[in-house]
Amino acid sequence: NNTYCADNKDEDIPDIQVSTDTLGVTCQADGQVRVSGTVTMVNNGCGTNLAANIPVRFTLYDNTGCTGNQLSQWTETFAGVNIAAGGGTQVFTITAHDVTTNICTNSTGCQVSILIEADYTNSICESDGTDNTRCTDKTVTVPDITVSSVTPTSSCVNDSNFQGTVTVNVTNTGCGAANNAVVRLTSSCGYTFTDQTVTLAAGANANL
Questions:
Q1: Which residues have a Cβ under 8 Å from the Cβ of 108 and sit 6 or more positions away?
Q2: Whole-number Cα distances in Å, 146 to 66, 170, 173
């Protein structure tokens, strides 16, 4: 008998995939947006729980489908990993990342996308290293208020006494509603004006 069947051998090889995400692109300050949220990782491999730290790379694009121009790229490492094999999952909250850009101008129809690459350094030996990426489209809801025109009118009441009004036209050229935005008018001639509050949907304009 020239054959021999060895005992069953346990395999201990993970397979990391990016399952889902809740990442969002929100307004952080004028001319600055913040990418934040969670990423869910799944281990479709076999064997023991995956405990190795997972290096992850993020890339923000100005178009859908992870195409177009790259607006920002950054990395971080997911620590405290404990993902069971055979489809176990773990949710990681990413470190918020701020990007200085006019996101309304640098988007396509108020849409951007984020590419998530798990184990981008190939530091974890996997059964399949070709399924570690996820591309997800995101809708931008950041407003952008502009002053379209300032139109003063005045008339003489009597000597050294004038009265009039100033009409300010404001437009929201951004991707989201501007709620309760304060419009302030100042004068170098000593005139005072009352602040006005306006709410504008994207693309709307109003006279104040």
A1: 62, 63, 64, 68
A2: 30, 6, 7
Buried b / exposed e over 21-52, threshold 16 CB at 10 Å, is bebebbbbeeeebebbbebebbbbbeeeebee
Q: How would residue 153 be classed by pLDDT, with cut points 50, 70 and 90?
A: confident
Contact 205, 172 (CB under 8 A): yes
Close Cβ partners of 126 (under 8 Å, ≥ 6 residues apart): 13, 14, 15, 16, 45, 119, 132
Q: Select the highest-mean-pLDDT range: 132-141, 153-162, 167-176.
A: 132-141
The CA distances from residue 95 to 74, 123, 170, 183, in Å, are 10, 21, 36, 34
Sign of CA dihedral 55, 61, 67, 70: negative
Cβ atoms of 204 and 176 within 8 Å: the answer is no
* Nearest alpha-carbon partner for 143 in 2, 27, 39, 37: 27
